[in-house]
Automatic annotation (TrEMBL), chain B:
SUPFAM superfamilies: Thiol:disulfide interchange protein DsbD, N-terminal domain (DsbD-alpha). This is Thiol:disulfide interchange protein DsbD N-terminal domain-containing protein. Residues 1-22 form the signal peptide. The lineage of its organism: Bacteria, Pseudomonadati, Acidobacteriota, Terriglobia, Terriglobales. The keyword Hydrolase does not apply.
């Protein structure tokens, strides 16, 4: 039985619409898939960049903007005497015999403020090994503002005010945060620039402690 | 229209050169670039001179209204000039940014290009406004000391 012309046309139109819809759906799915893959790739690349700063000693770390070629690793930590927020004179020499993390930071540095609570946590965790943190504020902000920021971050380790001479001695602090992990003999065992992961920071602290030995010496 | 075209061309040129900037200069002297252009405004009437900037790829600077008192805002300071009356600059709005290690802390930043609008009333003729952009930049993991970028805004009132 022949199909009336009107119905045949409607069927054809329906087929065309379904075809267009199908092709559109396939194109959309392809585009969506590509976009998702690009985003995933981008995220992976970001993580890769961030999670591999200042690779430790084997063969030397690759220099990048945030992770410069370590200049002080294996060398004696430059001596300094600075004034703390509570007005006391603090020298690096006061901590000889103890592993020390010297951290340069500033009130305007958001990544610095992310890691400072971690330092506080590790300071408590490794207190038995004599571990100490010295925070040096490379900041034009006044003492009160620095103190306010330190308090807000919950830091209890000594915060020292820069004299403008200490950062050149440490190779010039062009960006923040920068950290120097110093063993009990006063030697820099690791140097990092930019925010690292919490695990990396702990690994570097352990490295400074391991190079120190297990005894607690030269307590304040 | 011509001004818009010039700005688009400048931005496109800058974007085109971004990879060169990122590759050839490991540590740029400035993370913010002033996109200079000649502009024309009506003389003796309220008008707006736009000052365009581009942030080097891979960096961000705090917006004019960062979300923390401790963060340093982007501020354009303009010196008074003869024949020009200025009002307070108007800044682009920033966008959210978080460091990978702490997605809960949202910063308000500029990336790519941003604009500062200077409302002016100027006498007929050519004018040069001396200005300084104060900003503080960071990349994905580190922050750089606050900087000042001196610049000259050129425009003609006719």
């Amino acid at each position: 039985m022949p199909v009336p012309e009107g119905i045949a046309m409607k069927r054809s139109a329906l087929v065309v619409v379904l075809l267009i819809a199908g092709i559109s759906l396939m194109l959309w799915a392809g585009w969506h898939n590509l976009r998702e893959r690009r985003l995933a790739m981008q995220k992976a690349q970001e993580s890769h960049v961030i999670l591999t700063p200042a690779a430790p000693a084997q063969g030397g770390a690759q220099a990048t903007e945030s992770n410069p070629e370590p200049q002080l690793r294996g060398k004696a930590a430059p001596a300094f005497t600075l004034v703390s927020l509570d007005g006391k004179k603090v020298s690096l020499a006061d901590y000889k015999g103890r592993p020390v993390l010297v951290n340069f930071w500033a009130t305007w540095c958001a990544p610095c403020k992310l890691e400072m609570p971690w330092f506080e946590e590790f300071r408590a965790k490794y207190a038995g090994q004599g571990f100490e943190v010295l925070g040096i504020a490379e900041d034009d902000a006044g003492k009160d503002e620095i103190a306010k920021a330190a308090k807000k971050l919950g830091t209890t380790y000594p915060i020292l005010l820069t004299d403008g001479k200490v950062s050149p001695a440490y190779g010039g602090i062009d960006y923040l945060p920068e950290s120097f992990y110093i063993n009990a003999k006063g030697v820099v065992v690791e140097q990092t620039a930019g925010l690292g992961s919490k695990d990396e920071i702990e690994a570097n602290i352990k490295k400074a402690i391991a190079a120190t030995g297990t005894t607690t010496a030269g307590a304040e | 229209m011509m001004r818009s075209l010039r700005w688009i061309a400048s931005a496109a040129l800058l974007v085109g050169f971004q990879p060169l900037i990122a590759q050839d200069v490991a540590k740029p002297k400035s993370t913010v670039i002033y996109v200079a252009e000649q502009q024309t405004v009506p003389a003796g009437k309220k008008a707006v001179v736009e000052v365009h900037f581009a942030v080097v790829d891979g960096y961000h600077v705090n917006s004019h209204t960062p979300k923390s008192d401790f963060l340093i805002p982007t501020v354009l300071k303009v010196q008074p000039a003869a024949g020009v009356t200025e009002a307070a600059p108007e800044y682009s709005t920033g966008h959210d940014f978080s460091f990978a290690f702490d997605s809960s802390t949202k910063l308000d930043v500029y990336t790519g290009t941003f604009t500062v609008k200077l409302p002016v009333v100027a006498a007929a003729g050519s004018h040069t406004l001396d200005a300084t952009l104060h900003y503080q930049a960071c990349d994905h993991a580190a922050c750089y000391p606050p900087k000042s970028l001196p610049l000259q805004v050129l425009f003609t009132a006719q």
